Structure formats: C-alpha cells, structure tokens
C-alpha cells in the first residue's frame, strides 16, 4: 500500500471515476491536492537536468496531443461501462473474456524488452533524466523493474509490488514466487515521466537449450515455454506477454553485436509480442558503434532477415536505428567516444534525431493508454461476438438435430397410440392392441436410446476442430472469401477456448444467443467505438483551431 500511496498522485488520474470517488479520501500526498494533471503538459514539472536540453519531447502534431483530462476520464468511464455491459453475456456463454480483463495498471506504462547489453537500462536513464538503472557491458538486469514517479525515492521488492492491488501488477502472481522475487518497484522523484511508468526487463541471452525451435537444437521437441521456465525458473515468455498486453508502448531492443541472432528475442517476438504491432517499436541501438557502412549494412540486413522469420508480413515494420548520447551511458564512455569520433557528424545527427523520435513515442504513453483502452474494448467485443455467433451456429444445428429426433419419437408414439386407439374402437382382439402398445413402447424406447447415443456422436462431431472451422466459415463467409487476416487472427484466438466452453456446458444446455445480443455487440463495434475514437482524437473536440 505504501508504494501505491507514493505513486498515487499520478495514478489516481487514470482510475475510473468510480474508483476515484472511493479512493479520493485516501490521497495523502502534497502533490495530489494541486491542480496538476497527468495529461496536462503545461503543469508538468520541468524535465530534470541532464537530458532536458537535449530532448524535445513535446508533441509534433495535433494527433500527439492528449485530449483534455475530463474527456479522457469520460472515455475511460464509457469504455469501462461498455465492457461491463458485455460481461454478463460473456459469463453466460463462457466466453473468451477474462474477469477484470479491462482493468489495467494504475498508470500507463512503457515496457522495454530485448537483447542483453543492447542499452535498455541506458535508454531508461536517458528518458528519466536520472541514472536510476545500472548499465554495464555484462548482462546486468535479472529483474523486471517497475519505475514509477513519486514524491520521494523508495524501493520495494516484488512481493510488495505484486501484493498492492492499487498499482495493478497482482496478476503477476500467476507466474509463481520465482518471478515475484525477480520483480521490483522503484519510485523516483524528479524524473521526467511524471505521468507514466517504465518497466525494464532482464536482457535476453541464449543458453544452449533455448532456441524454442527457431534454430536446430535438441530442445526442438519441447515447448518453448517449458524451456524458458527451465532457463529462468519462471515462464519468461508468459510474463513478457502479460506485460506487453497491458503496456501502452513496447520497445524491442537490438544492438549491433546481436542483430536478431538471439533466439530468445525472436522467440519472444513470435510468441509474446504477436498482435501488438500497433504499440511495438523495434529499436536497433548503439548504431554509433558501426565503424564502416558495411558493418551497418550487414547488421541491419541480418536483423531484417531474422525479423522476417517471425513477422509474417512482406513489409517489415520500421526499425529505429539510433544511439544514446555518450554522457548518458554509465560506462564504456571511452569506447563510445572513439566510435563517435569515427562517425560522420551528419550520420550521428541522424541517429540522435531517431532517438528523439523514439523518445517522443515513449512520452506519448498516456495518450496511447486511451487508444489502447478503446482498442482493448474493440478486441474484446470482436472476440465475444465471434464466440457468440459461432457457438450459436453450432448450438442451433445441434438443437435442430435434437428436435428432429424428438419429432421422430413423438410421431412414432402418436402412430402407436393411434393404432391402439383404432384397435379398441374397432374391437380388434386385445392381444393385437396390447401388441401394438408394447411394440410402440419398445420401439420408441429403443429409438430414444439410439437417438441419444447418436446425438452424443453428433455433439462430438459438431465440436470437433474441423466442424467448428466449418461453422466459422459458414458464419463469416465474406471475411473468409476476402481472406481477412484480422478475423482469422480472432478465430485462431477463440477456437480452442470456444471448443472447451461448448464441451464443458454441453450443447443441450448451451444458452441460445438472441438476435438482440448480437445486435448489441455489433452496435458497440459500429457506433460506440468509432464515436469514442473520434472523442479521443484531439482534432475532434476542438483543441485545434481550424
Ligand atoms: N556506444 C554506445 N554504447 C551504449 C549505447 N547504449 C548503451 N550503451 C552501453 O552499452 C552497455 C550496455 O547497456 P545497458 O543499458 O546496461 O544494456 P541493457 O540492455 O540494459 O543490458 P542488460 O540489463 O544486461 O539486459 C553499457 O556499457 C552502456 O554504456 C549506445 O547507444 N552507444
Ligand atoms: Mg539493463
């Protein structure tokens, strides 16, 4: 609780108004009572010494500007309400949305991941304007370090960080005690990022067993997750995915020594950062170390080649080639100075410009939080909608078959009863009428038994992966014919959980999805989300003078 009290002055600006009301009375910090707001750059404290003269992080265009605080709060509240409104349907359909999946961390955050010694910690110090993290040539960090702004410097260990629900990292508990003891919180005063947190991560190093199938090795038959657990004592990929899903900006760092040849980094890109393109920045740092253009070309080419193995797209994302100012690195200055001299001044300027571009992206984290919350809602609604539509297709086909069986049994019973009735009416010998009744009972009973066992087979068949895929194709003909990758990605995410839900509930008990349920979800996608996006765009709500 102590740590969250420290960072709460900033954190409180992001929690929903409901939470604001509940916790408002708890705020103790002096800064809290000021009118300073996390979205209001004008009131932000001035950047601290070292980097302040070198860095221009002010927004370059209107889209970079944050909407006003009240608008931001309103957007967050509306997203939260919409999210809550779809959760009952998700619960009744055993949908794909996890409980509290819309609850993020108390502050927006930037997450850095990448090769060891690629300059993650140095870059963090550069952003903070304070040497908070230790940087060094040998692998330095073995912890996930959350760096948050606060009124005074305080360090907290993993259990304290994870145990404080106000900060929003309690979900890390699922990765076990080893991870928790490799996690820490540093609250720092006077850092540049007053409105967001930064998370540093352990550098990635290849051990002989950990290539996760990327490169020939003896661990090919093991899952990449299990090899990661063996290497680090916890599911590193899973933790990175957890962090990246909640982060507002993710930076993936490479350096000239290891331009993508670290299997673990590529593994992470493949398994933990998939689907995060909208917030992922790929950085080739320490470019001042290239002495010859050929060295650069080789490293850049190698990085692109390695990325192309894990990014299934023709056009590779932008790679930010940059370097840090020598003064902001804590060691290796002499070496860097030599290479810097060797580098053409114009090339160096170019690298510095790119570094400032990356910095500007980092400083946009709070604005990105709004976009990410809307994107998260969009994602959740799509997942649930597809789950509902495909589940309904499967359920209705099963129920049609069930209905046909019942009709068959019913008509056989009616026929038997009618024959028996006719027998009685026409005074046919009792043996005949009794025979008809017995035949009807035995026939209908047998038919019921046969139909029930057949229905089980039908249920099994309808919930097989092949039949579910057929249902997906039937319910999304246009998207399938257009080979829409967005929908196939959504389908890939929900297919197995959907199968599990159908199995667990059983098709005969699975609730029907009404047209109004589908229409409601569709309305959020077609009307509400575009409206919220327009609201989040500064040009929409009049901050720009046209
Ligand atoms: N020449 C040069 N050196 C750099 C640059 N960025 C970082 N360094 C140096 O590279 C070394 C490694 O930097 P770190 O910041 O510790 O790298 P890291 O990615 O945090 O490393 P781990 O914590 O081990 O994963 C340090 O000696 C830094 O001074 C750069 O842009 N140019
Ligand atoms: Mg480090």
**Radius of gyration using CA atoms only:** 30 Å
Terminal Cα span: 46 Å
Strand content: 5-15%
- Quaternary status of these chains? single chain
Structural class: alpha/beta
Count of alpha/pi helices: 19
Query: Which residues form runs of ≥5 with pLDDT under 50?
Result: 10-60, 207-226, 328-334, 541-546
N-to-C order of helices and strands:
HHHHEHEEHHEEHHEHEHEHHHHHHHH
Largest sheet: 8 strands, mixed
Percent of residues in helical segments? 40-55%
Overall body shape: elongated
Hetero groups: guanosine-5'-triphosphate, magnesium ion
User: What's the rounded overall pLDDT mean?
Assistant: 79
How many beta-strand runs?
Answer: 8
Spatial strand order of the main sheet: 3-4-2-5-1-6-7-8
Q: Helix and strand layout, with pairings?
A:
Elements: H1 2-11, H2 17-24, H3 49-52, H4 69-92, E1 109-114, H5 120-128, E2 144-149, E3 154-157, H6 158-162, H7 177-180, E4 183-188, E5 197-200, H8 224-232, H9 236-246, E6 249-254, H10 263-271, E7 280-284, H11 293-310, E8 319-321, H12 333-342, H13 345-363, H14 365-425, H15 430-462, H16 465-475, H17 477-481, H18 485-505, H19 515-536
Parallel strand pairs: 1-5, 1-6, 2-4, 6-7, 7-8
Antiparallel strand pairs: 2-5, 3-4
Helix pairs in contact: 4-14, 4-19, 14-15, 14-16, 14-18, 14-19, 16-18
Q: How would you sum up this structure, described in words?
A:
The structure is a single chain. The protein is an alpha/beta fold. The chain has a domain at 381-536. The chain is 54% helix and 7% strand. The chain has an eight-stranded mixed beta sheet, sandwiched between helices. Helix 4 (69-92) runs parallel beside helix 14 (365-425) and helix 14 crosses helix 16. The two termini are 46 Å apart.
């Amino acid at each position: 609780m102590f740590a969250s009290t420290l960072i709460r002055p900033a954190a409180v600006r992001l929690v929903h108004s409901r939470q604001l009301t509940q916790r408002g009375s708890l705020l103790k910090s002096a800064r809290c009572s000021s009118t300073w707001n996390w979205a209001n750059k004008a009131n932000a404290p001035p950047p601290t010494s070292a980097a302040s003269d070198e860095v221009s992080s002010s927004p370059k265009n209107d889209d970079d500007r944050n909407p006003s605080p009240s608008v931001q709060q309103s957007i967050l509240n509306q997203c939260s309400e919409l999210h809550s409104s779809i959760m009952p349907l998700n619960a009744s359909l055993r949908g794909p949305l996890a409980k509290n999946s819309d609850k993020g961390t108390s502050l927006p955050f930037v997450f850095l991941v990448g090769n060891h010694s690629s300059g993650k910690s140095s870059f963090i110090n550069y952003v903070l304007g304070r040497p908070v993290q230790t940087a060094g040539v040998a692998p330095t960090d073995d912890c996930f370090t959350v760096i948050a702004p606060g009124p005074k410097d305080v360090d907290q260990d993993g259990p304290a960080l994870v145990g404080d629900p106000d900060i929003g990292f309690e979900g890390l508990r699922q990765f076990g005690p080893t991870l928790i003891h490799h996690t820490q919180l540093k609250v720092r005063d006077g850092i540049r990022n007053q409105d967001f947190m930064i998370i540093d991560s352990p550098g990635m190093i290849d051990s002989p067993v950990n290539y996760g199938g990327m490169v020939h090795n003896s661990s090919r038959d093991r899952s990449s997750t299990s090899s990661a657990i063996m290497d680090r004592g916890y599911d590193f990929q899973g933790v990175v995915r957890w962090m990246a899903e909640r982060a507002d900006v993710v930076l993936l760092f490479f350096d000239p020594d290891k331009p993508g040849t670290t299997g673990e980094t590529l593994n992470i890109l493949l398994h933990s950062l998939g689907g995060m393109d909208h917030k992922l920045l790929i950085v080739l740092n320490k470019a001042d170390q290239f002495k010859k253009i050929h060295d650069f070309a080789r490293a850049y080419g190698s990085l692109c080649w390695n990325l192309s193995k894990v990014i299934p797209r023709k056009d590779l994302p932008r790679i930010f080639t940059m370097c840090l100012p020598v003064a902001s690195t804590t060691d290796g200055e002499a070496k860097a100075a030599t290479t810097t001299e060797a580098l053409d001044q114009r090339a160096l300027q170019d690298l510095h410009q790119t570094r400032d571009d990356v910095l500007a992206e980092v400083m946009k984290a709070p604005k990105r939080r709004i976009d990410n919350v809307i994107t998260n809602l969009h994602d959740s609604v799509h997942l649930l909608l597809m789950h509902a539509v495909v589940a309904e297709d499967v359920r209705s086909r099963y129920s049609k078959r069930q209905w046909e069986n019942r009709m068959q049994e019913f008509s056989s019973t009616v026929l038997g009863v009618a024959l028996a009735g006719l027998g009685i009416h026409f005074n046919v010998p009792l043996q005949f009428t009794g025979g008809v009744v017995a035949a009807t009972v035995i026939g209908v009973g047998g038919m019921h038994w046969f139909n029930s066992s057949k229905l089980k087979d039908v249920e099994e068949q309808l919930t097989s992966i092949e039949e579910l895929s057929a249902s997906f194709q039937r319910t999304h003909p246009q998207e399938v014919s257009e080979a829409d990758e967005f929908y196939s990605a959504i389908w890939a995410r929900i297919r197995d959980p959907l199968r599990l839900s159908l199995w667990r509930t059983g098709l005969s008990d699975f609730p029907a999805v009404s047209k109004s349920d589908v229409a409601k979800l569709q309305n959020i996608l077609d009307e509400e989300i575009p409206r919220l996006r327009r609201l989040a765009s500064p040009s929409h709500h009049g901050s720009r003078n046209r």
